[in-house]
Amino acid sequence: MGLKCNSSTSQPFRSEMNRVISHYLHPGSSRELNLSSRDRAAVLHALEHTTHPSALTLVRDMVEASLRGQSHPNFIRWAICNGNKPRVLFVRNSGIAHIVAALILGLLLILSHASRWWRFFVFPLFFVGFDIGVAAYKGLCVIIHTSHRRALRPWEQFSEDVSLTSFDSGPEEEANLSTDDMFSMVSRSRNGVSLDTFGTSNSYSHELWVEKYRQKHLFRKIFTKSIWVQEQAVRLLQDKIVKQSHAWALIISVLLTALVVALPQANVI
Predict the structure, then answer these.
(1) pLDDT tens, 37-74?
(2) Of 17, 158, 186, 262, which is the most exposed, with the fewest CB atoms less than 10 Å away?
(3) What is the spatial distance between Cα 131 and Cα 244, in angstroms, rounded to a whole number?
(4) Which among 138, 144, 154 has a CA at the least distance from the CA of 228?
(5) Do the Cβ atoms of 133 and 95 come closer than 8 Å?
(6) What are the boundaries of the signal sequence (predicted)?
(7) b/e sequence 139-162, b meaning 16+ C-beta within 10 Å
(8) What is the pTM of this model?
């Protein structure tokens, strides 16, 4: 009892289990799972004595929890974004600039002899600023969202194997391009990716597009090409976020405009 057993009779699939350990459980392995040292030691200790799938119960539960609680939500948030990071930052800063302009205009009108009704002109500045700012916080560019488009991903901009004409067919041709077709085309563009169970670590840092995109001018990153958003579920989520940004922008803009209009006249300038 408690002794390590190496017999292939009592431990079937030992060679396969050893491959799993070397690829997923050993520190520094090609596809090392994000386990704590305590959990890793417990699993490895259990696998020394048995190859029964129950020895991997802890790993299964942790991987499933990570997929459901982290990976999947993060993927959804990433898929919803229709702009790259430079464009989203540009739009967000534009929203801040509109809000600052509204505050400056309101302050000047309060200090001036102009009628307080002129202060209503701060409303469109507030609304535009908060509208694009709230949407940009979720990674959306309202401008390209109006046509349900998204900016090209960095690897799509420098791919030689993927034809993007099918991606940009628009809503009338959407049914002709399935999810499997898109996945197949993208997979062909990632030559270094292995989908094998015991494949490589699938790191993209060595790929050519990484350096090419890094050297690309900031202006071209912001105003890069865009293509039609094929997935209807993504478009629905984007529409929901944009409607929410409209609502929040309207509420905040009305309150701030009412405050600016209600302030007494200073008659300084």
Answers:
(1) 898 999 999 998 888 889 899 999 999 999 999 999 99
(2) 262
(3) 9
(4) 144
(5) yes
(6) none
(7) bbbbbbbeebbbbbbbbbbbbeeb
(8) 0.73
